[in-house]
Amino acid sequence: MAPRRYTTVTLFCLVFAVLCLYANFQLTNNRMELPPPVREFLQDQNLLQGDTLQGFMPTQRGGVESLQALLEGVNHDGGADEEQVEKELKELDLEGEEMLPLPLEEDLAEADAEGAGVEPTARNVTARDARLLIVSAVPPFRARVTSSLVKSLGDRNGFRVLMPLLKMQPKMGTYQRDALTKYITNAAEQEPVAFVRDMYFFDVTRMGFARPVWTALVQDPVERLVSTFLNAKEQSKHHDAGTKDRDISGLSLEQCVISRDALCWYSKGEQRALQLSFFCGQHTFCEVVGSRSGLQMAKYQVEHQFSVVGVLEELTLSFAVLQEYVPRYWGNATALMTRTALEREDLEIANYLREIPEKVRQYLRALLREEIDFYLFVRQRLHLQAASLGIAKQLY
Description:
Elements: H1 2-28, H2 36-44, H3 63-71, H4 82-92, E1 132-136, H5 143-157, E2 160-162, H6 174-190, E3 193-197, E4 213-218, H7 221-236, H8 253-258, H9 277-280, H10 292-305, E5 306-311, H11 315-325, H12 327-330, H13 333-336, H14 340-354, H15 358-367, H16 369-389, H17 392-395
Parallel strand pairs: 1-3, 1-4, 2-3, 4-5
Helix pairs in contact: 3-4, 3-6, 7-14, 10-16, 11-16
């Protein structure tokens, strides 16, 4: 009888071991269906999407609450405590996670990656009754003018403006993007909201949220490069002698281009945060210099997702179109706008551009070919929208 008892125990141990191995395999592959109490708890904590561990998202607890505390009341006029802001920023880690690429828009079926498959139109893609406006603040964002205008429009038109000053990567990680979207959409359920942030486009409807209104302003690529260069020179003057930052205060744009300095030189194939990257979105090719796919995707997103993309060189026309296409948020824009600070900066850039040799101009145009192509596309679309409203002749 004893040997038979040992055989039964051995068989039981073998079965138990096999079950453990199977459970370990399912856990390793994140496919084990969770018991209802565990599943409901994880879903309540925003740590699980779906019914299995495949949808488990290891995140810091309180992330959304931290984001809410981080953003609430923080704007260009607000006085958030800097130490608290830094603490919340570290907790949320808005810069630390790599963004996984989103699925390609039907493999660019409507946006031919190799040709000019996207043509600008005057159609209005503004979502009816949208309660969330996202202003994509493409650097260098004219915060002194445009952000002040958005604040004034919020007071005039009755919507809340969220304008965080915190340093955040424009290409955010999956969790950070999800937490940010949950916060601004939850805020929009209480009252209409405008969110101003320098971030790459991402389609929130793919995440199950209502479609917001996207708007933005772009700048002539050559003038944008000059503006960035002059700003870097100005910042260089204030660097301490003991820092590792090099002094470029005496560097001319011509010297910068000839020496192929990264500050003003774009090498084909390298990764850079381009102006069109903010419209192209989260794909890797959106930051590749010379990428035709990035160019066409940026055009596609502008045409299908952005209500209006204005241009800084035609700011009056841009605001006139914005207030007609998105009246809930941009109504009264032309009445409230001021050009004083903008004109000073434009004059400084214009004077600097006149001193640049034609050879350097040609270099810049060649380096920025895709950027210029995208800019001309946006500008043509803006003019088509203005023509459809019958306001172009009134302004020119």
